[in-house]
Amino acid sequence: MSTPSFELGGLHHLALVCKDMERTVDFYTNKLGMTLNKGFDLDAGYGQHFFFNMGGGQDLAFFWFRDAG
């Protein structure tokens, strides 16, 4: 087995897609107690992107897209 030529030092953020940003924010803040670091609307009303603090400088991010089924 060969030795990898790089080392992973952590995770900056993991991004997932959700169907309902309001429910997602409620669950992660009110049920799990995570802090919402930032959130913003995407250009032209295309959707939203929010970041929750996972600790250690790492975030859990969610996209919501207006046109997603």
Layout of secondary structure:
Blueprint: E1 13-17, H1 21-31, E2 36-41, E3 47-55, E4 58-65
Parallel strand pairs: 1-4
Antiparallel strand pairs: 2-3, 3-4
Would you give an account of this structure?
The structure is a single chain. The protein has 69 residues and is of the alpha+beta class. Helix content is 16%, strand content 41%. It is built from one helix and four strands. A four-stranded mixed β-sheet has the order 1-4-3-2, with helices on one face. The chain is extended, with a radius of gyration of 15 Å. It starts with 12 loop residues before the first strand and ends with a strand.
Query: CA-to-CA gap between the ends?
Result: 43 Å
* Strand numbers in spatial order across the main sheet: 1-4-3-2
Instruction: Please give the radius of gyration in angstroms.
Output: 15 Å
Series of secondary-structure elements, N-terminal to C-terminal: EHEEE
Shape designation: extended
Count, helices: 1
Q: Largest sheet, if any?
A: 4 strands, mixed
Runs in which pLDDT lies below 50 for 5 or more consecutive residues are none
> Structural class per helix/strand content?
alpha+beta
Strand content: 35-45%
Give the mean pLDDT.
90
How helix-rich are the residues, as a percent range?
Answer: 10-25%
